Amino acid sequence: MKGIVSDPDILSGTPVFMGTRVPVKTLIDYLASGVNTLQDFLEDYPSVNPTDAKQVIGQLGQQLLHSELIAA
Fold first, then answer.
1. CA–CA separation, 2 and 55 (whole Å)
2. 23-70 per-position pLDDT tens digit
């Protein structure tokens, strides 16, 4: 996925937003909490490109929809 990198030299290969050390999982945890918003995440992690964060959310949504369609 564009804007996401996984490098063994950065956080032991944990997927992070390109040019940062912010794990993608941090965004997922923020949104899953039900308390935080994308805007909260972007304010707390200003080094993350907003377009990359939105792309992750879109990709996850597509994957979820696809898996639900297959299960139906």
1. 8
2. 999 999 999 999 999 999 999 999 999 999 999 999 888 888 877 767
Could you give the count of Cα atoms lying within 13 Å of 66 in the half-sphere of its Cβ?
Answer: 6
pLDDT of amino acid 72: 62
- Cα Rg, the chain, nearest whole Å: 13
Place of tokens 């941090």: 26
Q: Which two tokens stand for residue 18?
A: 């390109």
| Domain boundaries along the sequence of the chain | 4-71
Task: Classify domain 4-71 at the CATH topology level.
Answer: Arc Repressor Mutant, subunit A (1.10.10)
CB 7 within 8 A of CB 13: yes
